Prior knowledge:
Among the domains are: about 80 residues, Conserved hypothetical protein from pyrococcus furiosus pfu- 392566-001, ParB domain (Alpha-Beta Complex), CATH 3.90.1530; about 45 residues. Helix content is about 60%, strand content about 5%. It contains 13 helices and 4 strands. A 4-stranded mixed beta sheet has the order 1-4-2-3. A hairpin with a 2-residue loop joins strand 2 and strand 3. Helix 12 runs antiparallel to helix 13.
Amino acid sequence: MPQEHNYYFITDADEIIIDEKFKRILPLRTEAELISLENSILKYGCIEPLILWNNILLDGHNRLEILKKNELPVKTVSLKLGSREEAIVYLIDFQITRRNLTPIQLSYYRGLHYNTEKQIQGSNQYTVKSAEAQSGPRQTRQSTAERLADHYNVSRNTIKRDAQVATAIDVIGETSSDIKIDILSGKTHITRKQLKEMSSGTADDISAVIAEIEEGSFISRRPGISSGANDDYAEVDSGNMQPWEKEFGKMTDEFRQVLRSHAKTEDTASVRNALRSYITMLENLYNQI
């Protein structure tokens, strides 16, 4: 194995291990995006190194396939992480900071981050208790939800609800990985409120929803604009709304979530891209009315 943080070339790309659980965490690229990525690599080379942990690929699955297909050298960097859970947390943070994600993807990743960190804490209970004992009774430790709320610039309650959303999506994925992918990609629409409710449901409840999705009979409740500043899960009665009103509500809600995800970053290019995308959607809606 290479030394930590040293860049190097692998002559045999088949030595890299593909972990399906890590791979399923990553958002899927469209066919057009994959074609664009391949054209860029063939023209300029693979500028970003693939990221490994214990020779397991964390980031760069699409690039690896393109490099192998075209018999190009694979540049990688190896990270030193203590466990699979730490690798998942790194992967989540890395994806959120470098991609424009949809609201459902943001909820899933924030919730998965919370659930994973709780697993890490559960496996290190003795260490945590020792640290608390040494810190003394006057020092107050920030909860995981509060810390992640600050990190992602959302409310503590949002993180808690995101955790339920992630739990429901992962439970669905255990039965049907295809439906999980469809939910995260937006192909199958299910609101975060519905997912939150499913997280406390029975196995039969989950199976029933999966069956409805597969049959095409599942009905999603369209989320509207929240009345609370930090409530991303509020619902409104859309029965009397015009189709263009529903579409406008959907676009505005998604745009607001994208802006919020970049509120604490310097990634102005992503914000500009989001604004341009929103303007284009508004123009298309205008032409349809």
